[in-house]
Amino acid sequence: MAALAVLITCGALGEHAALSGFASEGVVITGAQDIIVLSLLKSGAVVWVVNTFLGRPKKYLAALVRVIFPVAFISSIVDDLATTSVFINVVKNWSRKIKIAPSKLLLPVAYASLMGGSLTLIGTAPNIIISSLYAEQTGTHMNIFLVTLPALFCLLTGALTLLAMHKWIPERRSADNSFHNTSNYTVELMVPTDNPAVGMTLEEAGLYNVPGGRLIEVVRFDKEVITPVQSDEFVLGGDRLVYAGEVEEILSLKKSHSLVNATHHVFSVSEVDPNRKLRTATVKYGSTLVGHKVSETDFEKNNNMVLVAVSREGEMIRQSPREITLHPGDALLLECPPKSTNPEAYTKDISFFESMTTVQADKKTAICASVIALMLILVATRVLTLLQGTLAAAMVLLLCKCVTTKQARKGISWELLMIIACSIAFGKAIQNNGISDMIAMTVQKLSGGSPLLSLFIVSLTAMIVTTFFSNTVSAAIFFPISYQCAIVAGCSPLPFAIATMLSINASYATPFSSPVNTAVYGPGGYKFTDYVKIGVPLGLVQLASIMIIVPLLFPLDAA
């Protein structure tokens, strides 16, 4: 929004053009699609597909096949990030049953979700954005399944590539699994004012040498930090005691020694709810916690949770947990009230690891499946446009109570809609200020006038740029560039638009090129280099597939 304001203020973008993104079809379709996706998840339809197709394979390659194709199929209808979020929990439980490390499956899940999202125009945000911009520019609406054949070819070559590179897929220690057999983790507890230990030494109070751990730091109420800690140090009300050791055993001190969680100073242990439980979660992409310490935020207070420990890349961070600067994908061990244990519970900042497989199929499952199937048929036969179809389906699902209005309001990704609207405005700025023309002329010179080489340069550039930026932003910015490149080359803009869709969705080389990649980063315990090692070869194979299939199905010189 700030960048958009600068463009308007400097006169680089007119007010009408700047605000037109908020009325774009892509924004409305994405919002309606969020409601459709939520109804699918709530109805149990996705869980039914998962339980039907996963099974109990005995070999790793069979497990890869079992997980890649169901993920891709679901992602073609359900948003790719929502699909990945569901399968993270499913695969973690499933991997324990088939005795395969979750990290051997979660990265393929992310890549399969991205490839599957390309199968239809509603599977991923970049497809929605590019198809809506294409309709706005040409007056022609793409068929919802127009991209299915080239995307299916890319899915098959991608799946074969993952199977061929299966030995390269790393076996990592899952970040949240590191919370199970803990041996050197930090836990922070506070001494209430009325605690009988106040005035005693740590050794006299039984707080120095404790079962399963050791005291490594004392933080006084006035922020004085005492480390290393001596046994004859006096205990004061409001002291924060930082222990390293077994989480469960150290937390038992709350009951045996009347300690409380170190969120804020309390007078008595009776002020704290004793019926709380430990849950694991991951820091989401775009979370407001990223780059901050929990002690600096109101996260614990607002969500009635207490941060107990933090794990990164499968390893516990030996530091006072509330003083750790958080990164996307960090695994958190939280103490929560028992009534917040809904397996679908999440906030805008974290995503819980619990499985959604408890959702059971019922009559709403059939209603939901029927409504979505009818929508796809009506849109594919052009009885309805994609905008009309998604809006109608969302309204019917609300009327049938497959999802409530309250759930719909919370389920819509308002921040994503804002990003899409602003990104479309940036795309218009690139087009209106002649930047797309300049880039198109440069591509034309580099390609020597070859339409195929122009297509390759556009696709490769889109893939590389998306490696370092959000795929949603890349889609809005690259469409006017690819469109203008097609016009300058004297080609049909359709193959360039299709290739741009596929290229942007085929950016696998970093954990932040897509929210989907980021989503599995923490749960899989991956390192940055894991994405490079698998993602770069896979991306090159996808690029080659795009260059083969797109010109074959959509001739470059077509009218």
**Helicity level, as a percent range?**
40-55%
Given the C-alpha coordinates, what overall shape results?
elongated
Count of helical regions: 22
Quaternary structure of the protein: single chain
N-to-C span: 38 Å
Q: What is the C-alpha radius of gyration, as a whole number of Å?
A: 26 Å
Secondary-structure content class: alpha+beta
Biggest β-sheet, characterized? Answer: 6 strands, antiparallel
For the secondary structure, the number of strands is 11
Low-confidence stretches: 264-273, 341-345
Q: Report the portion of residues in β strands.
A: 5-15%
- The average pLDDT is 81
What is the number of independent domains?
A: 2
